[in-house]
């Protein structure tokens, strides 16, 4: 089958719904590969021969958690599956399809097909489904998990209808990895088929969660190996990516024991007289009041249990009374659950006072008759007493992680999988993880006051600013006050004096001036967010009654656990007060460590208009302060409500540079429909930021009639499946904003920065590893593991601390500026060094980091002094989704004019 012909793409704005990649241009001497790829259409920017690969930096070999695989050698037949009733769990769907293949119609499914648990079946042989390539089957499953005559209920019959929808030549995958095939629907379906084939065997043998598999043989206790596997195309080859993460399973065995563990270890239920964890602790009389029972019910909700007799049920909740007090009608007679088990079942309860589990509508059973079967994944936050185990398991050094990955691959038994063999796929695990070429980029020089420079320690990705003054200090801090919300002696007069002296002393060392050496100190008692905002507003008016004299800074001292107070202070500073605030935990106020106060002052300086440092251009990077190409950097993000938080909105943010060195930023944010990834108000937000850029350059830097020539847009949080959608909408909105402001000549580069991937790197040589076993900051990998055709790269810009460092994955979706790989990679690395809060490089460019912070702070933009303060734990109205969204939008408070011009988020 010949490759599909498609016209090439230039840099003109693409039509809606089209796949595109802004062409990179350049001389014709790209060799035969460039000619072969000329017809290829891509979603993002196309690599143009060697131009898509960088050369800067010292080359080092690194392992990557991937293994070579072959392309299927048989035709792939794709079937649509409809199982009735729909919306069944994937686990049940897999049981239905397994029964269909092995028991209902084994003559049709030879060799066995593979199934994704939802809508897709793939087969290496065309299934005999009749003349219309469609057939419906009846599949019976026992309702209570007990097959045959011992079942308490008759089996349930499901219908499964299969319809042939496509036939795919596997050659499309070979052309795709060779750069000769567009990333179209046919290539995507072929990759999906390979992934389903890869996961079919372990999904039948192991506990699974989406693409991850849990194996007790490789884990320890309740923390099992989470083997996330995926089949992915790479340059000139196919790869299987294998990674580990952490997972929590419910402890198998008696439900009573699990509930006792949670109450004692996590909820800290007072043992009272029951020192030896007696089951009666799970009764109201034994101390299980609602403050413990309700979180326990949340924890066990959704657990599948086996009730005495073999029936499988799912827990819906917990009763608030014991079995000896819950009555129901049995054949016209009122009796308690305890009486029923004694009289009707001949099985007196050992602990009749203990609460019951609700396992159906108005169906309650005692905890002691329930068993938790093994292999159930807990799809919720681990309890506090298990968090240390989760963290310890997650922070494995690269060498340990890669050893476990190699063991996990062996346990997945690729060689024995008949599903993989039927597709003709082979996974070569014998040589161990794949080795690719990485490069260590040179970090930028950082400039402080009077041209003093600092060299970044590449091993740590950090630097020391001792004896250095900030590049541009904020204005002299004249009017400031300390507001204390801590109680008792954690913050007394002596601590306040010492804190003031240490703060002012370190500020002087950094070139920051406090005119008033004796600030006003006020002790307040804030029992609610509403009270805090009112108190701070009143205090500001009391101290500074005239508009001509406003406080420069409020330092707010908070107790441990004061999250609600902290949110209220942010609301006051960002929305209501028009005052810069800086929060400090009371336990840190007595610290005499100059480094701590230096870190606090880094935040204060930029909040008040100062600049901490600027990066000096790295060789090969594009100069940010190029006067002939005025540049604006933007970072955008969207955050969404937690799973199950229905009716809540998503928050979006745009952060944008305003100065010539791209180190000062302003922000704007918005609220929109929940879980909508596209930023609806992006055009308005871009216009706002462009105007701020012009205003700052004119009034602060005295640059008249200036327009940006380059706009570099970093977008966070977009999955690969959303790339086309983002380009169709967000790129268009950016272009429209530029046109509306007469800046249509500004060239746009659109880059997605992602961290939700499973690629990890491990340096081969010990000399290339830092103290944590990770590569030095600045590792970039763009060969051997990236996209076959599109311009992407992995950049590990931060120093290693704990565990295996995760690089950021950069996908260049659009590029009017025609950056080379070296220019864009070194530019991104440089931007990772301007995060104003810390003297170390961070994992993503600073504007993207800032956008994430702004998104999180957007939750505090609802007025806590009114009735529409929506906290994470609050409830939403019972109105429809549209009405709820209107309510959120109407009550969302925009940033104050004061905050709009400041780095309030630092």
TrEMBL record:
<protein>
    <submittedName>
        <fullName>Eukaryotic translation initiation factor 2C</fullName>
    </submittedName>
</protein>
<dbReference type="GO" id="GO:0003723">
    <property type="term" value="F:RNA binding"/>
</dbReference>
<feature type="compositionally biased region" description="Low complexity">
    <location>
        <begin position="1"/>
        <end position="19"/>
    </location>
</feature>
<dbReference type="InterPro" id="IPR032474">
    <property type="entry name" value="Argonaute_N"/>
</dbReference>
<dbReference type="GO" id="GO:0003743">
    <property type="term" value="F:translation initiation factor activity"/>
</dbReference>
<dbReference type="InterPro" id="IPR003165">
    <property type="entry name" value="Piwi"/>
</dbReference>
<dbReference type="Pfam" id="PF02170">
    <property type="entry name" value="PAZ"/>
</dbReference>
<feature type="domain" description="PAZ">
    <location>
        <begin position="280"/>
        <end position="374"/>
    </location>
</feature>
<dbReference type="InterPro" id="IPR032473">
    <property type="entry name" value="Argonaute_Mid_dom"/>
</dbReference>
<keyword id="KW-0396">Initiation factor</keyword>
<dbReference type="Pfam" id="PF02171">
    <property type="entry name" value="Piwi"/>
</dbReference>
<feature type="domain" description="Piwi">
    <location>
        <begin position="553"/>
        <end position="863"/>
    </location>
</feature>
<dbReference type="InterPro" id="IPR045246">
    <property type="entry name" value="Piwi_ago-like"/>
</dbReference>
<keyword id="KW-0648">Protein biosynthesis</keyword>
<feature type="region of interest" description="Disordered">
    <location>
        <begin position="1"/>
        <end position="26"/>
    </location>
</feature>
<dbReference type="InterPro" id="IPR036085">
    <property type="entry name" value="PAZ_dom_sf"/>
</dbReference>
<dbReference type="InterPro" id="IPR036397">
    <property type="entry name" value="RNaseH_sf"/>
</dbReference>
<dbReference type="Pfam" id="PF16486">
    <property type="entry name" value="ArgoN"/>
</dbReference>
<dbReference type="InterPro" id="IPR012337">
    <property type="entry name" value="RNaseH-like_sf"/>
</dbReference>
<dbReference type="Pfam" id="PF16487">
    <property type="entry name" value="ArgoMid"/>
</dbReference>
<dbReference type="Pfam" id="PF16488">
    <property type="entry name" value="ArgoL2"/>
</dbReference>
<dbReference type="InterPro" id="IPR032472">
    <property type="entry name" value="ArgoL2"/>
</dbReference>
<dbReference type="InterPro" id="IPR003100">
    <property type="entry name" value="PAZ_dom"/>
</dbReference>
